[in-house]
Specification:
- By secondary structure, this protein is an alpha+beta fold.
- The chain folds into two domains: about 70 residues, no CATH class; about 160 residues, Chitinase A, domain 3, CATH 3.10.50.40.
- Helix content is about 30%, strand content about 15%.
- Strands 3, 4, 5, 6, 7, 8 and 9 form a seven-stranded antiparallel sheet that branches. A two-stranded antiparallel sheet has the order 1-2.
- The longest helix has about 45 residues.
- Belongs to the FKBP-type PPIase family.
- It comes from Nonlabens ulvanivorans (Persicivirga ulvanivorans).
- Pfam families: FKBP_C (PF00254), Pro_isomerase (PF00160).
- It catalyses: [protein]-peptidylproline (omega=180) = [protein]-peptidylproline (omega=0).
């Protein structure tokens, strides 16, 4: 079993003695105990330290392991050679990814200038929402099907300032293209669409973001120009959003499965 996230260990495994529903959706089950259940029961019965997350007082160690290969393919499998090939492929892929990142980051100032010009053009064509000062320009139409009120939808988004500077995105490629890539965020698997409730009552820091996506159908792609008072206002948002700053969001409600 492999831990969550890239480049984590792939040789750790759990032998579970009881139901552990909190692991559901995080790990894959790839086997079961077919012999030696009494040994598992005895391990579960050893004295533990309740103050140390119920770890055994005396370590329980696996002394030996024997892998039984079944079938011609398993018996022919050369673990050392496969491991070597995998490591070489991973090293090459990492080098290519690093070179691509370096290239994108070098081009980021140029891309930012182009984005600023594009945002200016879109804003001139945008339409003011009813009962709101948010301006919206529709980039492309989706399915024409509106999400049910109260349902959960998934949104791909990128947040810009009017000068074309990116402050946040759900897309790792866009983060790299506009010079705002965060390796730690990438390793955590946090570059992904966000789930939101399609509901006017949904609490949200930048309320203008909500006003915009509530006008969308599945598959719609829009850009929303959110004035400061419907964004983060005078307080801003940490070191990311300065006070009194207009926010621009490119967003898409992902199509239904």
């Amino acid at each position: 079993m492999a831990n969550a996230g890239p480049n984590t260990n792939g040789t750790q495994f759990f032998i579970m003695h009881k139901e552990t529903p909190f692991l559901n959706g995080k790990y894959n089950v790839f086997g079961k105990v077919v012999e030696g259940l009494a040994v598992i029961d005895s391990i579960a019965a050893v004295p533990v330290n309740a103050q140390a997350n119920n770890r055994p007082i005396d370590d329980v160690k696996m002394q030996t392991i024997r892998i039984i290969r079944k079938g011609k393919a398993a018996k022919k499998w050369d673990a050392v050679e496969v491991f070597k090939t995998v490591q070489e492929d991973k090293a090459m892929a990492a080098q290519e990814a690093a070179e691509l990142l370096q290239k994108r980051m070098a081009q980021a100032p140029e891309m930012q200038a182009k984005k600023a010009a594009q945002l200016k053009e879109w804003k001139a064509k945008a339409t003011k929402l009813k009962d709101s000062d948010v301006l919206v320009y529709k980039i492309s139409e989706g399915s024409g099907v509106q999400p049910a009120m109260g349902s959960e939808v998934f949104i791909d988004y990128s947040g810009f300032f009017m000068d074309g500077k990116l402050f946040d995105t759900s897309d790792v490629e866009i983060a790299q293209t506009y010079g705002n890539y965060n390796e730690r965020k990438d390793q955590a698997g946090a570059y992904q669409e966000i789930p939101v409730k399609y509901d006017p009552a949904t609490p949200m820091g930048a309320v203008g973001f909500k006003y915009a996506y509530l006008t969308m159908n599945y598959g719609d792609k829009i850009v929303a120009f959110v004035p400061s008072d419907l964004g983060y206002g005078e307080r801003g948002a940490g070191n990311v959003i300065p006070p009194n700053t207009e926010l621009i969001f490119e967003m898409e409600i992902l199509p239904q499965d």
